[in-house]
TrEMBL record:
It comes from the Eukaryota. It comes from Pseudogymnoascus verrucosus. This is Pectate lyase domain-containing protein. Residues 1-20 form the signal peptide. One of its GO terms (molecular function) is metal ion binding. The lineage of its organism: Eukaryota, Fungi, Dikarya, Ascomycota, Pezizomycotina.
Length: 363
């Protein structure tokens, strides 16, 4: 009987995201169950070539690896890079000014147990495969992105259809082009914590999953938290987020979009500033359309994660989200948000930002 009780307790812990933090110290949410490349071989990326010995593509081509970097700069992709299962990508190991990829998709499709930290993924229109996303984790499991920077996604910035146990935390998801979508999540459960979402048409995120959405900042949206009137029944903990309109916002009330009666929502401590006057002074906005209103969080860990108020989250996220040290693209994203409604564009081409290196910024 005791053995069975321990087994049930362990399963419940996995479901609720309360298991030990395997990904790294401080990892949170459902993706924290990922073991990444723990215990595997340390492999160092020694050049910025698209392929070959010492390249990033070669380093991620086999499982059970911890990927470090001895070089800094952009890796210009000639084709999508497919990650292997059971790997950890330590972008923070790169020398200043950091490491990233541009002009192609990073794919974890069909893989499991992947940890990516302090890494830049900038697809942009140099990628001629317009049906690709900046980061794709479709049909994957146990994935965590932390302090990453995702920009210029064509299909989606982040695609997570049929993805199980994922966390996107402390990251910047900015300036999607093409479809101009932030993130598409189906499957779950998913945790989205402490992220900065900048200038997207929609899907910040689109979530057809049981989801924790905590301490996010969304700026210059046309539609922010979206369920797309799905026929599925899902639960959503939406806590202490700040929605801020910008010049591209056509309907300020679309901070919650297409929330139907099949969705169960615990919304608490969320603010929206819809004045576009350069001053942050929002009002509480916790009405979630026709969704079923929950009296308590659907997941018992959500309230504990929501340590910051929406205002505190604004300060913290703008100070520390994204890959470190901040590069030209992320600095531009943050400075855009700080105008608090005065500036912001939903782009169709990264070059339109006016940043160096054709809009990709220089690493």
């Amino acid at each position: 009987m005791l053995r069975n009780l321990k087994f049930v307790t362990a399963i419940l812990a996995i479901i609720s995201g309360t298991v030990a933090q395997n990904a790294f110290e401080g990892a949170i949410g459902f993706g924290a169950v990922s073991t990444g490349g723990n215990g595997g071989t340390v492999v160092t990326v020694t050049n910025l070539e698209d392929s070959g010995a010492g390249s990033f593509r070669d380093a991620v081509s086999q499982s059970n690896r911890i990927i470090n970097f001895a070089v800094a700069g952009y890796i210009v992709l000639k084709s999508p890079v497919s990650l292997s299962s059971h790997i950890t990508i330590n972008g923070q190991s790169a020398p200043s000014p950091g490491i990233g990829v541009m002009a192609g998709e990073i794919s974890a499709s069909g893989k499991n147990n992947i940890v990516i930290r302090n890494f830049r993924m900038r697809q942009g229109n140099l990628d001629k495969q317009t049906g690709k996303s900046a980061f794709n984790m479709g049909e994957s499991s146990n994935i965590i992105l932390d302090h990453c920077s995702v920009a210029y996604g064509q299909w989606d910035s982040i695609d997570a259809v049929k993805a199980v146990n994922i966390t996107v935390s402390n990251s910047i998801i900015a300036f999607p082009i093409g479809q101009q979508f932030g993130a598409h999540i189906e499957g779950g459960p998913a945790t989205l914590y402490g992220n900065l979402w900048v200038s997207a048409h929609n899907r910040q995120p689109l979530t057809k999953s049981n989801t924790q959405y905590i301490n996010n900042i969304v700026y210059n949206y046309q539609a922010a938290y979206t369920t797309a009137e799905t026929s599925g029944y899902f639960s959503h903990d939406i806590l202490n987020n700040y929605f801020i309109t910008g010049p591209s916002t056509t309907n300020p009330s679309n901070y919650y979009y297409q929330m139907n009666e099949k969705q169960s929502v615990y919304a608490h401590g969320n603010y929206a500033d819809t004045k576009n006057d350069g001053v942050l002074a929002g009002a509480l906005e916790n009405k979630v359309g026709s969704a079923v209103v929950l009296d308590a969080a659907w997941d018992p860990t959500s309230v504990g994660l929501a340590k910051l108020t929406a205002l505190e989250a604004y300060t913290a996220v703008l100070a520390s989200a994204g890959a470190s040290p901040r590069d030209e693209v992320d600095a531009f994203a943050v400075s855009t948000v700080k105008t608090l409604g005065k500036s912001g564009v939903i782009y169709t081409n990264q070059a339109s930002t006016g940043l160096s290196n054709g809009g990709y910024g220089t690493l």
